[in-house]
Design brief:
About 50% of the residues lie in helices and about 20% in strands. It folds into 4 domains: about 160 residues, PAS domain (Beta-Lactamase), CATH 3.30.450.20; about 100 residues, PAS domain (Beta-Lactamase, 2-Layer Sandwich); about 70 residues, Signal transduction histidine kinase, dimerisation/phosphotransfer (DHp) domain (Helix Hairpins); about 150 residues, Heat Shock Protein 90, CATH 3.30.565. It starts with a helix and ends with a helix. It has about 575 residues and is of the alpha+beta class. It comes from Anaerocolumna jejuensis DSM 15929. Its main location: membrane. It is found in: Cell membrane. It catalyses: ATP + protein L-histidine = ADP + protein N-phospho-L-histidine.
Amino acid sequence: MQKKLYISYLATIILALGIAGILFWNETSDYLYKQSEDRYLAQAQMVADVFTMTGFSSAQDYESFVDKYGNKYNCRITIIDKDGNVIADSKTDGQMENHKSREEVKLALKGESVSVTRYSKTMKQEYSYSAVPVKTADFDGVIRISLPFSTIKDLTDKLGGSLELTVFLCLVLAMAAAAIFTGLFTKPINEVARAAERISDGDYNIKIYTRDKSVVGKLARSFNIMAGNLKNTITSLTQRNAELEAMLSSMEAGVVAIDDSSDVLFFNKSFEKINNTGKTIAVGQSLYSIFRNAAVFDAVDEVKETKTSVMKEGSISGLSMSFIRVTGTPLGLEGEKSFGVLLIIEDITQLKKLENMRRDFVSNVTHELKTPLTSIRGFIDTLKNGAIKEEAVANRFLDIIDIEAERLFTLIQDILLLQEIESKRDFERIPCDINDCVKSVIELLQPKGKDDLEIIFEPQPYLRPFYCNPDRMKQLFINLLDNAMKYTEEGTITVTLKEEEDNLVLGVKDTGIGIDKESLPRIFERFYRVDRGRSRKQGGTGLGLSIVKHIVELYSGNIQVNSTLGEGTEFIIALPYDTGKKK
């Protein structure tokens, strides 16, 4: 800007100086020429007056007169009669042509005193001719004075040189002054421009310091106020945006906002996870190109149509089926026209699984309770109908009723135990010697063992104590060993303990019937039995392995199952020592 302003100032100054110089030159040169002509005319009149007072007796006297006064006044004097003949000339001795046709001569013969500027072919230069009429007793004609303009030209040349020097000096001074003043004038403007650039780069701490009280100074002060307000606004917006982004990022539900054209306005990371299509999501993309789900599309269409919040449920197909709940809300301020739709997409797969588990649990518990209760009621009815009188039959029926009642008691106990473990109520954690725990469980279950079944366990002498509830750990081993004993007719059950990478690793391996691959993923489900006939016959409730899994999760461990049908099954459990110390 300074350069443009400087050039415009300089152009204005040059134009002004040029016009002033030309006008001055024209006026001055015209004035000099006019003054010279007037002076020459006055000089001619004076010579004419002298001529009228001088007596002439011969032509030689005319020559003497023009020579005398020509030298005296340093001019060329010519005497011309009324016929235009040159009587005498101070500069030329020979015969001269008739001058009657000359402009100044013609006017003088008419009685006018005039000055005419013309190029002289005789003298080869520009002359000023001043002619006055003269009339005496002996002469009637014109006296003409001719002066070259060389003198005036020298004067005008000097004047022109002085004018050029003056204009040049004025131009130099004007250029310096323009540079100084444009610099002073544009300095605050340049500061404003630099400050604007820094603000555009994100630096809102810039301030302009100026003492200028003109419009530019007001601009600078207004800019400072604007920069301060902008900084506060940006800070506030940044903070609010960070808070909003933090809230959206921390939400497990997917959040996406779309405009009336269904183009994405913003979204959070959870939406990308729920989408799970591998497609890159960007603001401005159409929702239909990145997320294909009937529940989502139905919610969007209904919100746009009704302008009210709606809720839809649907499923997403992928590596595994998942379920979603879509809540759609119109986007816009209260009382104003909505400009889009806000979608909150929740993954309710776990909720659906829990609902299914609850239904299955109720169904399974009902079934498990119904079977022994039906058996008990049947035998009681039989006893009431007369079988009680037969002692042997009655005792056999009572034994069956006792077994079924025991099964009911065990089932209820397992359900209560499972509920207690799931509630994470495990207040007692003390250092427990796992070797002693295993030995006590083996001693407890040994009487139930078969003759052809051997339980092998070698205590580890340098095994660190594990912080836990001893009863929980015993329940874990009881269920694992009891399960192994039920499904192993003959062979061995091997129990191992060891430390591995700060984990307590427990192993129970049998040589029983094994588990088929289809059943392996489901063996920890409640009431699931690999062999229902065998389990019922041996009094199993179907909750043993589910209890084991929940105890392992209680101590932040993990459980692995390896099994080959017809060869046996191995359970490997890893429990972190550090987690065991936490309460």
